[in-house]
Amino acid sequence: MQVVAPLDVGRSQLLLQNHALHFALPDQCIGGWLVNTARTTDSKALRLLLVSPDAQLMTTFAQASKELGIRTEWNERPSCLSEALTRDKYEGIVLDLDPVRDIPVALAQVRESRSNSTAIVLAVVTLIDDAVQALDCRAHFLVHRPLDRLF
Question: Is the pTM value of this prediction over 0.90?
Answer without folding.
Answer: no
